[in-house]
Each structure stands twice: as structure tokens, then as C-alpha cells.
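Researcher: I'm preparing a figure for a lab meeting and need a structural model of a single chain. I don't have an experimental structure, so a prediction will have to do for now. The sequence is pasted below. Please return the structure as C-alpha cells so I can convert it later.
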Amino acid sequence: MFDISLIRRSVVATWYISYDFLIGKTVDAEASVSRSGCLYNLFLVVVVVVVVVVVVVVVVVVAAAVVEVVVVVVIVVVTAAAVGVVLVVTATSSVKHTFPKLFFFMYKALFR
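Model: Understood. Here is the structure written out cell by cell.
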């Protein structure tokens, strides 16, 4: 059956994570949903995801035109790993933000 609370919790979790790790501030998840900056910060998350996807697709297309399939797979894996490392380092650039904290916030926002 359709559960609106699951959607609400998902939005809260997305907002909480994006605000805390992209903007660098910790806010209360429930209060944050109503803030005017919510859409802007969710937009930042979408932009990051789109950029990552575009970079991987471009690398795959260029590599497929030049080299064998095995090399393409290796290039895709290395590119995805590099992008992931950059995103993690960016998200954890300050002392108070650690990678495990991301999962804690996700769990807290979704299941509290």
C-alpha cells in the first residue's frame, strides 16, 4: 500500500544529508524540510549526480571507440572510484564531518 510517510522520510533524509555535507552545517531534519533553501540544496545534489553520470558516460563512449571492452570496464571502474573518492573527500573535508557520519545521518533521518 502507498505510504506517504516513507516519501516524507526520504525527502527529510535527502535534505538532511545534502545540507549537512554540501553546505557544511548540521540542522534538524524535521525543521529543515520547510526551509526555503531546501530546493536549492536538493538541486545541488542532483547537479553532483548528473555531473558524475555525464563524466562516466563520456569516458565510456570515448574509451569504447578506442580500445577493447575489457579496457573500457577497467576505465569505468577506475573513473567511478576516482569520482567517489573526490566526493567523499569533499564531503569530509572538515574535522567534524566524517564518512561514517553520513550513514548515521541517513539512518537517523529515515528510521527515527
